[in-house]
Design brief:
Blueprint lengths: L33 H10 L7 E5 L3 H4 L8 H4 L1 H4 L4 E4 L1 H7 L8 E4 L1 E3 L9 E3 L2 H6 L4 E6 L7 H18 L3 E5 L9 H13 L4 E4 L6 H6 L5 E3 L7 H13 L4 E4 L1 H4 L4 H14 L3 H14 L2
Parallel strand pairs: 1-2, 1-10, 2-3, 3-6, 6-7, 7-8, 8-9, 9-10
Antiparallel strand pairs: 4-5
Helix pairs in contact: 10-12, 10-13, 12-13
The structure holds ribulose-5-phosphate (5RP).
Ribulose-5-phosphate binds next to strand 10 and helix 11.
Length: 294
């Protein structure tokens, strides 16, 4: 209860000491609102500036992909080692324990599958995202796809508007069209288009040459998808090269959950993304972990 009398006089005004105001650690996001910064700070570790996101939204276009047949058995045990999980509302409600307390990068669009023509997407209801307490809205952007470029860029733009209204960042996910080459020129174009349309974070692929041009020309953080399963040593090499060339993390699926030892693999990826390990150190760790946990 407020006391009118007997209050201790306020006297520690710090006269002469400028108020501390923190620099925001995440590239290109200094001017977003407080709620969005809070969400981004739970996705990206403010100390390393990086994030290991675990993606398992593949089923929404690919059905029961290898490794995702029983997500309760294969994915749930991995969640604790991730900084953020990327999934659909179906997976969230059916298998992800709400007690896992991980930020959710939420698959916010829905549409055509691998059996027809990918990328013909619509958006979900923002109230659903708020109800699920998600931390990021993930939307596919098919730059260069003659049939769906317009729809998907409009989807991104609408998502950014809704996200800004509620303080939820948008992840622009660059899709790859059938006839598009994943080179620095194309990825630079696609990521820049997502950023210029307001996405606060971009997910794209790593490319062998000039990836640093892609990250440098993108004014907001980039995280890389893993793509198709590679031998573990190669996947770790790719993660290291991406971070070394300016990526802010990984949003990896198949190269983690299809690995021979998925927990060992996600831990090895963390060593690279957060602790500055070399790919050789991370791979040594992975081999040891796999042999000790057979
Ligand atoms: C599809 C996605 C997937 O989440 C993405 O491809 C990540 O998984 P992977 O590392 O297996 O490629 O965003 O649009």
């Amino acid at each position: 209860m407020a006391d009118k009398e007997g209050n201790i006089d306020a006297k520690d005004f710090g006269i002469g000491i400028p108020q501390k105001s923190e620099h925001f650690f995440l590239k290109g996001n200094a001017n977003v609102d407080w709620g969005m910064k809070d969400r981004l700070s739970r996705i990206f570790n403010p100390k390393s500036g990086h994030s290991v996101m675990l993606a398992f939204d593949h089923g929404f276009i690919m059905g029961p992909t290898s490794g995702l047949e029983r997500m309760d058995l294969t994915i749930v045990p991995l969640i604790e080692y991730s900084d953020c999980i990327m999934c659909t509302r179906g997976a969230l409600r059916s298998i992800v324990p709400p007690t896992c307390c991980k930020p959710i990068s939420y698959r916010f669009d829905a549409g055509t599958s691998i059996l027809t023509d990918l990328n013909d997407q619509c958006l979900q209801d923002i109230e659903e995202a708020v109800r699920l307490n998600v931390s990021m809205l993930a939307v596919m952007v098919a730059v260069g796809d003659p049939n769906h470029e317009g729809i998907t860029v409009r989807n991104l733009s609408k998502t950014v508007d809704m996200g800004v209204r509620y303080g939820i960042p948008t992840l622009g996910v660059t899709a790859v069209g059938k006839n598009l080459v994943r080179d620095a020129r194309y990825l630079g174009l696609a990521t820049r288009i997502c950023a210029e349309n307001g996405a606060q974070v971009i997910k794209t692929y790593f490319c062998e040459e000039k990836f640093e041009q892609v990250t440098n020309a993108c004014p907001v953080p980039i995280v890389i998808a893993g793509g198709k399963k590679l031998p573990e040593a190669e996947a770790l090499q790719m993660a290291w090269r991406a971070i070394d060339q300016g990526a802010s993390g990984v949003d990896m699926g198949r190269n983690i959950f299809q690995a021979e030892a998925p927990i060992g693999m996600i831990k090895a990826v963390r060593m690279i993304v957060h602790d500055g390990a070399t790919p050789e150190q991370a791979y040594d760790f992975y081999q040891t972990w796999k042999n000790e946990n057979k």
